Input
Amino acid sequence: MKIDPTIQSTANIQADSVKNSRKSGGQTSGTSGASTASPTTGEDTVSISSTHSDVRTLKANFTNVPEVRIDRVNALQQKVETGQYSPSPGKIADAIIADQTSRSANA
Output
């Protein structure tokens, strides 16, 4: 492998851009102002909101909830097989209308 001494290292370019941003005193903002630069002390600081922690907690809790509630499915299946399940046509119609209304409102 040959090394070409005329090619400039990318590390130098990045360091120069960091130095230039500190000289200008500008702030670098990430998503929703989460990261800030402090030109008075010469140090960069990062603030992470509690939203990330909340999302991780909700995700962990969500993985513990089964997608199908087996106990309810088995009870309903037993009622259907024995002929004891008789759904109300009015409730079915209301549920269909409510579902379509919420879908069109979200679209």
User: Anything to note?
Assistant: The chain is about 55% helix and 5% strand. Residues 73 and 79 are 10 Å apart (CA to CA). Helices lie at 10-24, 51-63, 70-82, 89-106.
